[in-house]
Amino acid sequence: MHLSYLLHLFAGLCLLASSLALADIQTHSRGTQAEVRVEHVRQTVLDILSYTRWPVEPPTMRLCVLGPTEYADNLFHISQQANGRRVTVSRYNVGDPLVPDHCDVLYLGDIGEAERLILFARLRVMPCSALANRRALQ
C-alpha cells in the first residue's frame, strides 16, 4: 500500500510538473496579452482584406490608419496579402485632405462621432472599406 501511494504521488507530481512546464512554454511563445491582441488585429485585418471586393481591384491595397490606436502596431509590418497583392500602410490624421485619394481601406482608431461622420461624408463617392477599433464606434 505504501508503494501504491508513492506511485500515485509521483504520477501526480509528474502531471503537475508537465502542466506547469507547458503553461510556461505557452506564456513565452504567446507573449504578453497586448502582443497577442496586436497580432490578432493584424490577422483579422488581413482576413477581412482577403474577402473585400472592389469595383476595380487595386494592384496595391492602400491601408490607412487614422486616429490614435491601441493595437494597430503590427499593421505597419504588413507588406502583402496571402494572395500576393502588395499592401502599403500609412498613418494619417482624420482631417487630412489626402485620405480620400490615398486610402482604399481605413483602420479607424479612437475618433469622435463628429469626425467619423465628416470623414465618411468626404469618402461617400469613393470605394473604401472601413474597419474600426472597438471604441471607435461607441
Number of strands: 4
Give me the strand/helix succession.
HHEEHEHE
Weakly predicted, low-confidence segments: 1-22
Instruction: Kindly report the oligomeric state of this protein.
Output: single chain
Measured by DSSP, the beta-strand proportion falls in: 15-25%
Largest sheet: 4 strands, parallel
What is CATH's topology name of the largest domain? Answer: Rossmann fold
The CATH C-level class name of the largest domain: Alpha Beta
Tell me the structural class: alpha/beta
What general form does the structure show?
A: globular
Mean pLDDT: 79
Instruction: Please report the distance between the alpha carbons of the first and last residues.
Output: 64 Å
What percentage of residues falls in helices of 4 or more residues?
40-55%
| Strand order of the biggest β-sheet | 2-1-3-4
Number of domains: 2
Rounded radius of gyration (Å): 23 Å
CATH architectural type of the largest domain: 3-Layer(aba) Sandwich
The tally of helices reads 4
Summarize this, please?
With about 140 residues, the chain is α/β, with parallel strands linked by helices. About 45% of the residues lie in helices and about 15% in strands.
Describe the structure.
With 138 residues, the chain is α/β, with parallel strands linked by helices. Helix content is 46%, strand content 16%. It has helices at 2-30, 33-51, 99-102, 113-123, and strands spanning 60-66, 86-92, 105-108, 129-132. It starts with a helix and ends in a 6-residue tail after the last strand. The protein has four helices and four strands. Strand 3 (105-108), helix 4 and strand 4 (129-132) form a beta-alpha-beta unit. It has two domains: 1-30; 34-137, Rossmann fold (3-Layer(aba) Sandwich). The radius of gyration is 23 Å and the shape is globular.
